[in-house]
């Protein structure tokens, strides 16, 4: 290698890879589009999955009646439950038959007949001292045990007492019969 060639090789300018105007425009437009799309899509995504992210109030209890007012005779008590179903929130009115058992424990029965879901009532001419369903004549005893027509006993609410009040929780299968 002669002296001149060697000089050319050593002083060769470094070739920089330059971005073409077209590439620059594509990157800029692509970035801006992705940013704007993200801004529009992310809130929608958050809105769509919101019910999944909301903490469910499992097993919450609702104040129903003063403990001192519960007797051995079943009493119909109305109460409201706050329900969240996806984006829809409601406070449906619920009902329970609350009684003090012979052992002194307070229990609450569901008023929904286990035959086809009509609303039962307590006592009356047709069934003295029994729960009676007006639809097809199902009968239950004071503990909710099925006596005729209905295939199962009445469900009961979970019950807890606190500071002189009776609180009702979720419905569970009857544990008294
Ligand atoms: S729904 Fe109660 S007896 Fe049929």
UniProtKB/TrEMBL annotation:
Q: Which InterPro entries match?
A: Rieske_2Fe-2S (IPR017941), Rieske_2Fe-2S_sf (IPR036922), Rieske_Fe-S_prot (IPR014349), Rieske_Fe-S_prot_C (IPR005805), TAT_signal (IPR006311)
Secreted is among the record's keywords: no
TM spans, by residue? Answer: 24-45
Occurrences of domain Rieske (ranges): 98-168
Presence of the UniProt keyword Flavoprotein in the record: no
Which metal ions or organic cofactors does this protein require, according to UniProt? [2Fe-2S] cluster
* Swiss-Prot/TrEMBL keywords: 2Fe-2S, Disulfide bond, Iron, Iron-sulfur, Membrane, Metal-binding, Transmembrane, Transmembrane helix
The protein, known as: Rieske 2Fe-2S domain-containing protein
- Name the source organism: Cohnella suwonensis
What is the phylogenetic placement of the source species in the record?
Bacteria, Bacillati, Bacillota, Bacilli, Bacillales
């Amino acid at each position: 290698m002669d002296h001149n060639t060697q000089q050319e090789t050593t002083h060769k300018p470094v070739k920089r890879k330059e971005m073409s105007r077209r590439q620059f425009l594509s990157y800029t437009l692509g970035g801006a589009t992705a940013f704007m799309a993200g801004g529009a899509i992310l809130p929608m995504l958050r809105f769509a999955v919101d019910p999944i992210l909301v903490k469910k109030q499992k097993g919450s209890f609702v104040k129903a009646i003063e403990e001192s007012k519960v007797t051995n005779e079943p009493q119909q008590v109305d109460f409201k439950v706050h329900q969240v179903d996806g984006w829809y929130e409601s406070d449906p009115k619920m009902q329970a038959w609350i009684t003090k058992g012979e052992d002194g424990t307070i229990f609450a029965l569901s008023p929904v007949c286990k035959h086809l879901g009509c609303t039962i009532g307590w006592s009356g001419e047709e069934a003295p001292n029994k729960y009676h369903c007006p639809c097809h004549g199902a009968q239950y005893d004071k503990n909710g045990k099925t006596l005729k027509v209905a295939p199962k006993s009445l469900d009961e609410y979970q019950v807890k007492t606190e500071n002189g009040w009776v609180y009702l929780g979720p419905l569970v299968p009857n544990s008294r019969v």
